[in-house]
Amino acid sequence: QVQLVESGGGLVQAGGSLRLSCVASGRTFSSYTMGWFRQAPGKEREFVGTIRYSGGSIYYADSVKGRFTISRDNAKNTVYLQMSSLKPEDTAVYYCAATSKWVPEYYVRLGTRYDYWGQGTQVTVSS
């Protein structure tokens, strides 16, 4: 069982930056593929990005590519989402997710492929 706790959300002006963190419990964090998703009010959950257990492969949604960066520190059991050039449309609750299973590249965008989820952290971008 893995528990995930996100932090770092808040209110920021458009064009600003935030860094989200997700700390995982357990001793096998380094073997987990970690994903970030978001959900805006009235909208479906949306894929943001994923980082493989080794950090060697990282995938991003087109909507955040070039603005968001995912990284991980396996020694700290933590995955990060650095968000820059934020836009009002980035406003959402951001969730981290984890799976120990291999997820083919095509499927990393599917939330159903992840077994564990955090409680989410709110990000609000004002115009």
Unreliable stretches covering 5 or more consecutive residues: none
Helix content: under 10%
For the secondary structure, the number of strands is: 11
Q: Percent of residues in beta strands?
A: over 45%
Short description:
This protein is mainly beta and 127 residues long.
Characterise the protein shown here.
This protein has 127 residues and is an all-beta fold. The protein has strands at 4-7, 10-13, 18-24, 33-39, 46-51, 58-60, 68-73, 78-83, 92-99, 116-117, 121-126. A hairpin with a 6-residue loop joins strand 5 and strand 6 (58-60). The N and C termini lie far apart (40 Å).
What is the fold's blueprint, element by element?
Blueprint: E1 4-7, E2 10-13, E3 18-24, E4 33-39, E5 46-51, E6 58-60, E7 68-73, E8 78-83, E9 92-99, E10 116-117, E11 121-126
Parallel strand pairs: 2-11
Antiparallel strand pairs: 1-3, 3-8, 4-5, 4-9, 5-6, 7-8, 9-10, 9-11
Search tags:
127 residues; mainly beta; seven-stranded mixed sheet
